[in-house]
Amino acid sequence: MHTTMETIIYHFPFGLLLLCILSASIAISATNITTDQFALLSLRAQITTTDPHHILAKNWSSGSSICEWIGVTCGSRHRRVIGLNISNMGLTGIIPPQLGNLSFLVSLDVSTNNFHGEVPHEFAGLHRLRVLNLDVNNLEGYFPPWIDSFHELQYLTLRNNSFTGPILPSISNMSKLVTLRLSNNTLQGNIPKELFNISSLEIIDLKGNSLSGSIPDSVCDRLGSLIELDLSFNQLNGHIPSSLGECSQLQMLSLSGNHFISGYIPKELGNLKMLHSLDLAGNRLEGAIPKGIGNATMLKSLNFDYNNITGNCTSPFGLV
């Protein structure tokens, strides 16, 4: 009897511990699922009255699993929301702060809708995010200062909105970024040189903003994978860096519609053997077209219009 009692006393705390852990695990799981559901229903509440096809109003129902809702992808193991794609649905409304509680979210695409207002700062908690696409909406406010918390982000595109303010140097904290598209906003200030320290970048598209200052001379020091650089239709000045000729993988370069009122076309651009498109139109560049440009034998599109340059350039493809 004594031995049996000792056994019960010895094992009871361990069994109780297992029971507590199991109960806590179930509670946390339920809470997390509920949190994801609440976040999505908060989004639906902002847009159901202007959901032209009633897609979310009919499909996003608390009577079914959120993993079966249109546009929602859940992870196979933990059954948390990892993807949300409600692009091209004609939705109007604001993005609620509760969306920042989707802590397992990897990809978010709300592009080509009519969302307005600011992006909630609660998004800073989406540490797993790799894809963020807010293209073609009516979003406004300063370029989010908390966006540098997305250390896993690879694809960031905010085109065709009304974001303003500067691009902060801390953008370099997104060290895994591959694609950056911020075109057609009203961003201001200099392009931070820290941006060009993100060695993984393949696409930089800052077209159609109000960015000023000069292009850093060290633009290609770490961008060995850069294939597209579009800085057109801004207010950039100074000279075009000859170091651009060191971006060996560059296929598209557009600097048109700026204020390069002094300087010339660097002959080093002829070193870009992969270059397909070169657009320097609408500046005030001077001097002759460098003969070395003809060495860029892959060129298919070349535009030097509206400058003060002389001469011509013929490539093996007959471009003049």
How would you characterize this protein structure?
- This protein has 320 residues and is of the alpha/beta class.
- The chain has a single domain (2-310), classed as Leucine-rich repeat, LRR (right-handed beta-alpha superhelix).
- Helix content is 16%, strand content 21%.
- It is built from two helices and 20 strands.
- An eleven-stranded mixed beta sheet has the order 1-2-4-6-8-10-12-14-16-17-19, with no helix packed on it. The chain has a seven-stranded parallel beta sheet with strand order 3-5-7-9-11-13-15.
- A hairpin with a 6-residue loop joins strand 1 and strand 2 (81-85).
Any guess at the CATH architecture? Alpha-Beta Horseshoe
Share in helix: 10-25%
Mean pLDDT: 87
What are the secondary-structure elements, in order, as H or E?
HHEEEEEEEEEEEEEEEEEEEE
The main β sheet shows up as:
11 strands, mixed
CATH topology: Leucine-rich repeat, LRR (right-handed beta-alpha superhelix)
Q: Provide a count of the helices.
A: 2
Rg over CA atoms, rounded to whole Å, is: 26 Å
Secondary structure class reads alpha/beta
Fourth-tier CATH superfamily name: Ribonuclease Inhibitor
Number of strands: 20
* Strand order in the largest sheet: 1-2-4-6-8-10-12-14-16-17-19
Distance between the termini: 103 Å
Low-confidence stretches: 1-31, 314-320
Q: Specify the overall morphology.
A: elongated
**Beta-strand level of the residues, as a percent range?**
15-25%
| Integer tally of domains | 1
CATH domain class name:
Alpha Beta
